[in-house]
C-alpha cells in the first residue's frame, strides 16, 4: 500500500526551501511531498492585510491537489497551520508532526517576536539578520561557526528576508491554540528543539501536553533544525509516520 503523501508547513519569516529543503530528498523516497509558500514567502504574493490560520490551512491542503489523505509536518508557525488543517479536514489528515511549535507565545517568546517585528518595521535588513542569527541558531551550533561562516550566513539571511515576514510574525503573536489542541485526534509527534532561543522549549512542551496521546521527541538544535540537525529530524519524521 502506498503511504499517504506529506504536506510541509513552514514557519514565520521562512519558506518551504529555507525550512525544509535538506529533508525533502529523504522524505520523498517513500511518499509524495507537497508544500506551499505562505503569502509573502517564496514566489507567493504578499497579503494585502493580516493573515488568518484558516486561509493558510486551506492553501496548504490545496497544495495536495487530488491526494485524498496526507500527513502534515509543521514547523514553528506551520505547527499552528497544521493543527488548523487537521481540524478543518479531519477526513484527510492522517497524522501530524509538529516541530518547534507553541500553544501561544509566552512572555519570553512574545518579547523576542516583538523585537523581531520592531526591527522589520525599521527596515534595516542587516539588523534583522543579526537578530535572527542570535535567536534562530542554537548557541552550541552558533559557537562552532567560523567567522567566515558567520559572515556568509548573515549575508544570506539579509538577502532572503521574505517580504511577508511582518504579517507572519503578527500571526504568531495573535495565535492561541489552547482550545484547539485537545480536539486533535490524529496520531501526533511533537518535536522540541533543545537549544531554541526564539520559541521557548517550554512552549513546545506545553503543545505536546495538550494534544491527546501526543508523542514527544527532542532535537539537539536551536530554531533551525533543517540546518542544525536535518538527518535526525528526517529520521524522527520517517520513524513516526512509518
TrEMBL record:
InterPro entries: AB_hydrolase_1 (IPR000073), AB_hydrolase_fold (IPR029058), AB_hydrolase_sf (IPR050266)
Signal peptide location: none
One term of GO molecular function: hydrolase activity
Source species: Saccharothrix lopnurensis
Domain AB hydrolase-1 residue range list: 4-230
Presence of the UniProt keyword Transmembrane helix in the record: no
Protein name in UniProt: Alpha/beta fold hydrolase
Pfam families: Abhydrolase_1 (PF00561)
Keywords: Hydrolase
Top-level taxon in the UniProt lineage: Bacteria
Amino acid at each position: 500500500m502506498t503511504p499517504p503523501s506529506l504536506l510541509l508547513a513552514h514557519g514565520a519569516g521562512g519558506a518551504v526551501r529555507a525550512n525544509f529543503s535538506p529533508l525533502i530528498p529523504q522524505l520523498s523516497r517513500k511518499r509524495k511531498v507537497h508544500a506551499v509558500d505562505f503569502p509573502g514567502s517564496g514566489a507567493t504574493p504578499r497579503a494585502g492585510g493580516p493573515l488568518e490560520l484558516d486561509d493558510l490551512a486551506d492553501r496548504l491542503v490545496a497544495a495536495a491537489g487530488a491526494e485524498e489523505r496526507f500527513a502534515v509536518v509543521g514547523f514553528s508557525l506551520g505547527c499552528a497551520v497544521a493543527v488548523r488543517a487537521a481540524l478543518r479536514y479531519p477526513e484527510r489528515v492522517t497524522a501530524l508532526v509538529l516541530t518547534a511549535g507553541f500553544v501561544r507565545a509566552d512572555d519570553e517568546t512574545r518579547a523576542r517576536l516583538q523585537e523581531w517585528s520592531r526591527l522589520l518595521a525599521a527596515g534595516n535588513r542587516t539588523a534583522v539578520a543579526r537578530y535572527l542569527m542570535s535567536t534562530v541558531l542554537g548557541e552550541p551550533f552558533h559557537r562552532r561557526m567560523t567567522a567566515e561562516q558567520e559572515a556568509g550566513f548573515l549575508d544570506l539571511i539579509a538577502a532572503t528576508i521574505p517580504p511577508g515576514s511582518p504579517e507572519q510574525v503578527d500571526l504568531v503573536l495573535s495565535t492561541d491554540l489552547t482550545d484547539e489542541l485537545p480536539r486533535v485526534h490524529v496520531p501526533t509527534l511533537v518535536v522540541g528543539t533543545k537549544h531554541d532561543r526564539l520559541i521557548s522549549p517550554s512552549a513546545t512542551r506545553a503543545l505536546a501536553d495538550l494534544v491527546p496521546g501526543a508523542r514527544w521527541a527532542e532535537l539537539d538544535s536551536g530554531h533551525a533544525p533543517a540546518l542544525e540537525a536535518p538527518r535526525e529530524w528526517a529520521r524522527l519524521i520517517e520513524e513516526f509516520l512509518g
